[in-house]
Write a structure and sequence with these properties.
Layout (H helix, E strand, L loop, with lengths): L14 H9 L8 H14 L4 H6 L1 H7 L5 H5 L3 H8 L8 H21 L2 H6 L8 E2 L10 H13 L6 H10 L3 E2 L9
Parallel strand pairs: 1-2
Helix pairs in contact: 2-7, 2-10, 9-10
């Protein structure tokens, strides 16, 4: 007999949200492609619900060269126009231009620090993920403030402290699963 599964409340009953919660959210990754993917997706999410972006994730993969940062960094004006006409993604010209610029900045940051992972984890205590043991939900932290501020100085857009904190949760820099969650 198996134990019942307990989840955080936020995924509700939506199968896509549940899959994301169970398989990705709060799980640390060093995969540079995944780090880039979530930069693009979290930035696209600014001002929208996360489920809106999750439902378009496959379209984003196709539109943004399977999240190959080198290919996205080389996008031309023709690619920009193609993206502006792509009904499968959020067609906001500032977000699309921002995503292309993010690819360039991502590659520069990788070059400077050896990897984007190295860049991010230099902000973390002892260079390790944080596991929160609270039911309190927060939208930002001093670390997300610092990362967001540094990334803005580097030229990243659509990456304020709230988006940064959501990014940190998505890539497992912060594990905010409630204490009794089966996926903590």
């Amino acid at each position: 007999m198996s134990a019942a599964i307990t989840r955080c409340h936020w995924p509700g009953e939506d199968p896509l949200y549940i899959k994301y919660h169970d398989e990705e959210w709060g799980k640390p990754t060093q995969d540079e492609k995944k780090l880039f993917e979530f930069l693009i997706l979290e930035s696209a999410q600014a001002g929208l619900s996360w489920i809106t972006i999750l439902r378009r994730r496959k379209n984003y993969r196709k539109a943004f060269a399977n999240f190959n940062a080198k290919k996205v960094a080389a996008f031309t004006e023709a690619d920009f126009k193609r993206l502006m006409n792509d009904e499968g993604i959020i067609r906001n010209k500032l977000k699309i231009r921002g995503a292309i610029n993010t690819a360039k900045l991502f590659l520069e940051t990788q070059q400077e620090f050896g990897s984007f992972y190295n860049y991010l984890y230099r902000f973390m205590p002892e260079g390790k993920p944080i596991i929160n043991h609270s039911h309190k939900l927060v939208a930002s932290s001093p670390i997300s403030d610092a990362i967001s501020k540094d990334m803005k100085k580097r030229g990243f857009t659509f990456f304020g402290t709230t988006i940064c904190y959501a990014y940190m949760q998505a890539i497992g820099m912060v594990n905010d699963h409630i204490p009794e969650c089966s996926f903590k």
